[in-house]
Fold this protein.
Amino acid sequence: MNISLKVWRQRNKSADGEFKTYKVEEVSPDMSFLEMLDMLNELLVKRGEDPIAFDHDCREGICGTCSMVINGRPHGPIKGVTTCQLHMRSFSNGDTIVVEPFRARSFPIVKDLVVDRSSFERIMIAGGYVSVRTGNAPDANAIPINKHDADEAFNAAACIGCGACVASCKNSSAMLFVGAKISQYALLPQGQVEAKERVLNMVAAMDAEGFGNCSNTGACEATCPKGINLTHIARLNRQYTTALLS
Amino acid sequence: MQWFIKALSTSIGKKLLVGLTGLFLCIFLVVHLYINLHLLKTDGGEEFKALAHFMGNTWAIKVMEIGLFLGILLHIIYSILITLQNRSAKAVGYAKSPNPGTSSWVSRTMIFWGLLILVFLVIHLQGIYFKYKFGSEPVDLYVLTVQVMSDPVWAIVYILSMVGLGIHLYHGFQSAFQTFGWNTPKYKPLINLVAVVFWLGIPAGFAFLPVFFAFLGGHQ
Ligand code: SF4
Ligand code: FES
């Protein structure tokens, strides 16, 4: 298949960017979106042009680095799929595809499609951990956890920190991400020791990074590749209010 | 008190305040509608005026009234603050909009409906409330209210404003419970059910009165 790509090109953080159009020919429908970009980049290198910078690592949907907005949606049009797992068969021959970097003040552009998401790391540093005693691993069944809580914590832990929630939110709110991280610990007994400080500190870090406020539009839930839902934001709010009042 | 002030500087704290004041205003709407519906009685406004007199002359209600104006003020100020902060957090939009299909238009236009309600509030207060409370000559509240509502132009303004209120409450009511953290799978159906009363029932109740007086012939 042949496609036309409108890609955001920006030399560095402070430079002005612009869209550039590229024709990519003989794209296999079985290629992933990133492989298609690889192909285009090889072409650009051969022509002596600067290849398009984009983030990627695992290419199997678990590291969360392949951040870009494809036709207006972070990670592209298919629900529950990261860019690296998106296949070209999801598009049609002759399509024009618009590719932009994640847009949020707290995710500054480094180059082209690469954004700096270290603000997420700083939120994690503020509270995304539990204290455990070192030594022998405790018996896995020693602490009973009911099935529902275990499942919910597991669902929350599926968040790969990709930042698509922030990218899709009109307020650039990070609350789906923070909600998932809070849920992951709050539902388990191991997370109780730091529960209060965790939620206060993570929200403080989130605010300090300049993310917006959740206005319950749900765009994050609709675009999250890992199916994290708004219930986790409700839990974050509840945890926060409880911590505030206790 | 210190924790309260500190909380108001955080994102969730601000939203809690907007949610709490919003719900407080919802309670006021219920009371206001209850009184308004007495206009439908054919007692020449006796009960309506008696209720209005009670509202204006009971000290507990007077205190509530101050709380109400404070509530409106805080709701507006903090909503605007949050909106401005949100706009600056996005900074740059997308060439291709991600919005259709990922979020409802109501959730994206809350501030607009809110500001529309504010405009209505100003018109409404100076057209009826201020005349009744602070006017130079004594006013028969029943006569004045019926007169305003019977004017087709004002009636349409009132009805359209109630449509705006309904849209605002459609998103606002259940969002408040999300902010309180009660919007869990267990309580969500209940919240959504009660929400219908607020976003549809209450505005429809208010809007029925101008329809009745201006277009259905009133009590004649
Ligand atoms: S909540 Fe979803 S969209 Fe947000 S960072 Fe986690 S996986 Fe990505
Ligand atoms: S490259 Fe790792 S999730 Fe896409």
